[in-house]
Amino acid sequence: MLDEKKLKNKQKLASGREQGKVKFEVYGEEMVEKTVKLSGNSGRVYLPPDWVGCSVKIIRID
Fold first, then answer.
1. I need a labelling partner for 26 at 20 to 30 A (CA). Which of 1, 44, 54, 55 fits?
2. How far apart are the first and last CA of the chain?
3. 44 beta partners
4. Residues contacting 28, CB < 8 A, separation 6+
5. pTM
6. How confident is the model over 17-32, as pLDDT tens digits?
7. Hey, is 49 helix, strand or coil?
8. DSSP state of 15
9. Element counts in the chain: helices (H) and strands (E)
């Protein structure tokens, strides 16, 4: 029963993602486009060292 609920929830989430993309409008100083690399059990993106201490926003585009 619990597994059925989990499966239905996953299907709902997957179908919601396939409906379309969301538009974000962001104002900032600079932009870099990178690919996330595997790092242990998570992902990692390297940014320029002069960005250390700055506030950043990450948007997944695919």
1. 44
2. 32
3. 37
4. 57
5. 0.57
6. 556 888 999 999 999 9
7. helix
8. H
9. 1, 2
